[in-house]
Predict the structure.
Amino acid sequence: MTGSMPVSAEARPVAGPFTSRPMALTAGLLAVASVLGLVEAALPGLPVVPWLKLGLANIAVVVALVVSGGRTACVVSIGRVLIVGLAAGTLGSPAFAISAAGATVSLAVMWALSRAGRVFSPIGWSAAGSAAHVAAQFCAAAWVLGSWSILVLAPLSVLLALPLGALTGWLARTIVSRLRIV
Amino acid sequence: MTRGDRILIAALICASLLVWPLAAARADSQGGQAYITGPGGRSVISLSRDAEYRIDGAMGEVVVRVVDGSVRVHESGCPDQTCVRTGAVSSAGSVIACVPNRVVIRVGGEADDGFDARVR
């Protein structure tokens, strides 16, 4: 590989997440995402809204999306859900289904926004992804519980998820600007 | 932050504020009682009398306490304890959910399954 490479995965379709250097990058980001996910799983939720978390693992997903593209972000996000599920012992449980639903929908939204050229920055991707994550989690929880009553908590949760997502997006952008990892 | 970001975030804030009354409108005006839905079925409890209830959840027992007209989950056999941390609720439409146990506690009336329209 030569030195100066464009940062988007679309610009170099041969170097996907499964060739040596991108693979090392993907593995590193996956490890960071998993550790952040586990740390967060061990922390209590936020006060007043204990079902909301900061979404620290999303920092690694946004970094993956910025420096490499959708495929790497997908490996980091889905891989992290599986690893955290395995380590926390929730694999196959309703809690796992809910976190998988949130991660998948969030990734889809962030990937779509990242494809829109320079219209949105990682802050916007992350804020919208975070809102989508919470909304999808509420839908999955309502499905698991067989009751829609839980959705009364959704609007407030989505509203609070927006600044949290913007914050993690800002952190991801800051990290990308400080590091030269591609 | 780009201009697109600001518009996107503002649109999402507006969307959640617009949906808010829609979700809250499902809250019945009658407090004073709560519905507990669990894997074993549904029961109504009164909030006017202090008491303790034990519900068999999908993972373990959920201990629900009614004190001074409010209801809270005192103890739950679930790993995340989100239901316990939610604390006490008393206003109509408030919800405490224990997802791993598949238990939902809802203050107020019975309209809690499906998007059935209610005209008042």
Summary: The domain at 16-178 of chain A is CATH 1.10.1760 (Arp2/3 complex 21 kDa subunit ARPC3). Chain A has a mean pLDDT of 88. Helices of chain A lie at 20-42, 57-67, 70-88, 94-114, 122-145, 154-178.
